[in-house]
């Protein structure tokens, strides 16, 4: 082993996301919806340790389309997660909820919650949901179908007067407990090229009566979480079952100009090549076949690519960084720095960083992940490195061996490597695909009811009249609702 390789290996040792759908009360045609979304962590804060810590915690019907602008910039030195504004109830009230593609329910803080934060460190007042204050709201009984499906059968001591309770535990030890309610959700449905009108649907969600861990603090508090996982309890699944949306969504994260696209619906342009989702998995698992760096395939043992409990590869648009099993991480980094034996590494908030003048894209190789059905994900140097000051770059890949025990053997691919690509999740056909794309442009989505195609543009929240302005906001657009991902 070369002396420089030994130094690199020493540097690499640094310590481094239920079940029946609610029926809609609106018998009208299928629609699409828009929610304005912003980052959870304030831009420009530079607290990449907090961002990485949060990552570690996470570890066919007739329809139109929906436009959902998001805010933020998908870089570790900017902000990490996304949240959106939704409206619930009659009359509708506004709630700020974190967007997660991996959790499976929507919940908001309930009026009965005594310790729930009333104000967020993000700069806005929070709203407690009151089922009795909404003329369209109702409590879900433990005898109703949604509850029976969510819990896999009838709960002990259940009667018609007993509400359906829920409890969700997250990977960081935080939790939410409460009961299910059904009420009206407002969203903006796409009616033409860049045009929308107000739509609504009935959804079942959690009324949070008690929050534990970070969910109960006010520093980064939100009104709740909106889950877009694959389970039938997710808002996406509920709206799809009601004929409001199709279980297909796409995102395009623009880290070059800021802004982007996040859409739910049948994307017809651009076309993407797909790979199958692994069956019967709770997250967006895919079959990774090989990895090459600069065109040379890494010689990795077969077990690295096996899929199963606590192993395999997950596509996660709610995590910022990318996590690799320790063996894979070290082999990838050795290959990346093979031609840079003179580089000196240093620790910046537990990230592997180095001084480099010039273009990293010119000086470092492209990493390519190869998946089943010959789908490749090309990750360019500016997507696996991020700038952290003048001529200082840090590695956006993390050693999974230094993360949670449950995640040490998982390849978890986050926003940094998914940026500047259109990623399409087709849950109806159980495939996922992507293509390199200009996320500052637009895509075309088909309205399955009329057969028409509509243009969905990229957006920038800063130009949309928001009260809170964000530096270099990344905006995403969703064709029916929003998606993110929480590894529980």
From TrEMBL:
This is Peptidase A1 domain-containing protein. It comes from the Eukaryota. InterPro entries: Aspartic_peptidase_A1, Pepsin-like_plant, PEPTIDASE_A1, Peptidase_aspartic_dom_sf, TAXi_C, TAXi_N. Residues 82-435 form the Peptidase A1 domain. The active site is at residues 100, 316. One of its GO terms (molecular function) is aspartic-type endopeptidase activity. One of its GO terms (biological process) is proteolysis. Belongs to the peptidase A1 family. The lineage of its organism: Eukaryota, Viridiplantae, Streptophyta, Embryophyta, Tracheophyta. It holds the Pfam family TAXi_N. The keyword Hydrolase applies. Residues 1-20 form the signal peptide. PROSITE patterns: PEPTIDASE_A1 (PS51767).
